[in-house]
Amino acid sequence: MKKTICSTPLKHIPFVLPALCILLTILTACKGQKTAADNAPAIDSSRICQVRFCADSAFRFVEEQCSFGPRVPNSQAAARCADYIERKFTAYGMKVTNQRTTITAWDGQKLQCRNIIAAYKPEQAERVILCAHYDSRPWADNDPDETKRRQPVMAANDGASGVAVMLEVARLIREVNPKVGVDFICFDLEDYGAPDWAPAEVQQAGDTWCLGSQYWSANPHVEGYTARYGILLDMVGGRGATFAHEGFSLRYAQSIVVRLWEAATLAGAATYFPNTPGGYITDDHVPMNEVAMIPTVDVVPYIEEGDSNFGPTWHTTQDTPENIDPEVLRAVGQTLLQMLSEEE
Fold it and tell me: What is the distance between the alpha carbons of residues 292 and 255, in angstroms, rounded to a whole number?
């Protein structure tokens, strides 16, 4: 994905803000918020969602997706995994819509795109969106072993983790019983962006990523579709992950960022959701914000240590279930349940 603030077309690498910009971001993002240092009032226990997210169940959903193999575009593994996702949502009582199209990628490949939309309370006019991508990157182009960089990524974290959290939320949603409709959107073709060996002009184009969400944002599955807000989950199971305030989320959906981070505190997940600034990440939420005009927050890791701000398995052959932390899945999932429980 191309960073909007910076011209380097590297997918998912956060833009490191200058010191002044960091200060301005903190002042803007934290306006009206309290931290422990501000002597924040005690948590109102009556607001805490009593439905408990099951991390073991979510972890099984990660394993089941990975059991198909890398879900790269146009593969049988991708098709079988999409069928699996559809069956799961249907079993949980959702109305499932498959949005299919063919998209020409940066390398001229004709890619079959299948966005999967599962609707809870489809009759409700007031709606919110939970979304993630389910495809795998075809190339492990960040692998420390250069001989493996043309191999596909298993994508346990960068893909399967977000879908797994959504499936577990869908399994529990009738217990939470939010007063709004919820659409669970599984985007295809997020991770087919141009690798380092693509021509420079292709990399500079910046729109080679997020093909499924670009299509849905311009062509929603329901004519005139709108939603109160969206929450995008990307890489929400990696060991050591914490989720800072992503830049585009603050730009387009600051009030939702504030609400979601407050929900994390109520869910007992504040250590995973620090009130700190992260980077600007061009992800599926950008076309949702800029094209579909739905304020959408990106829950995406920001890890300051190491070679990648997304953790050591990002775009490597080590992105496997063995490197998923169920406690991170729990923190994100419980936060979502808390957020949904407070919808009026």
Answer: 18
pLDDT tens-digit readout, 203-243: 888 799 999 999 999 999 999 999 999 999 999 999 999 99
Per-residue pLDDT of 317-341, as tens digits, reads: 999 999 999 999 999 999 999 999 9
Sign of CA dihedral 315, 320, 321, 323: negative
- Tell me, what's the pLDDT at 13? 44
| Cα 48–chain centre separation | 24
Q: How far apart are CA 99 and CA 103, in angstroms?
A: 12
CA angle 287, 291, 293 (to 5 degrees): 100
The residue behind tokens 């829950």 is 299
Reading the block at residue 171, the tokens are 């399994």
Strand 127-133's sheet: what is its strand order? 95-104, 110-120, 181-187, 127-133, 230-233, 296-299
